[in-house]
UniProtKB/TrEMBL annotation:
Keyword match Kinase: no
Residue runs in coiled coils: none
Keyword terms, alphabetized: CBS domain
Organism encoding this protein: Streptomyces olivoverticillatus
Domain CBS: 8-67, 73-130
This protein's name: CBS domain-containing protein
Classification via Pfam families: CBS
InterPro entries tied to this protein: CBS_dom (IPR000644), CBS_dom_sf (IPR046342), Diverse_CBS-Domain (IPR051257)
Source lineage: Bacteria, Bacillati, Actinomycetota, Actinomycetes, Kitasatosporales
């Protein structure tokens, strides 16, 4: 059985809700990543901020990334997976919520992230194709 901890990218960095978006962008550049988990003052996961979030929710709206805080643009219920969860649980979580990155938690601490690239390195082609079909197919229309 393959578990989350075996396929994750270890040592994920995170920022706080109070960190500015220019800090987040510089950290993303330094780490060569497109997303960072966001935590509160008690180091609880609040969500994930992406490079796209910074552009769309800050820069494109004329806000100053040096003044805008991560907590102002992070939205939704944070999704995560336990480090010992089976890869099938990882896939279910990512597919059912249509997310491309998933924080990995062990003993209430962030220990890594699972991205599409991690899945591509560890899953057989048929399983990866099924995952991509779920993530990239059009969202169901809600009435």
């Amino acid at each position: 059985m393959t578990i989350a901890k075996e396929i994750m990218h270890p040592g994920a960095h995170w920022i706080t809700k109070e960190d500015t978006l220019d800090h987040a962008a510089r950290l993303m550049l330094e780490l060569n990543v497109g997303a960072l988990p966001v935590g509160d003052a008690k180091e609880r996961l609040c969500g994930i901020i992406t490079d796209r979030d910074i552009v769309v929710k800050c820069v494109a709206k004329g806000k100053n990334p040096a003044e805008c805080k991560a907590g102002e643009i992070v939205e939704g219920t944070p999704r995560w997976i336990d480090a010992n969860a089976d890869v099938e649980d990882v896939l279910h979580e990512m597919e059912s919520h249509r997310i491309r990155r998933l924080p990995v938690i062990e003993n209430k601490r962030l220990v890594g992230m699972i991205s599409e690239a991690d899945l591509a390195r560890h899953l057989p082609d048929d399983q990866l194709a099924e995952f991509a079909g779920h993530i990239y197919s059009p969202a169901p229309v809600r009435h």
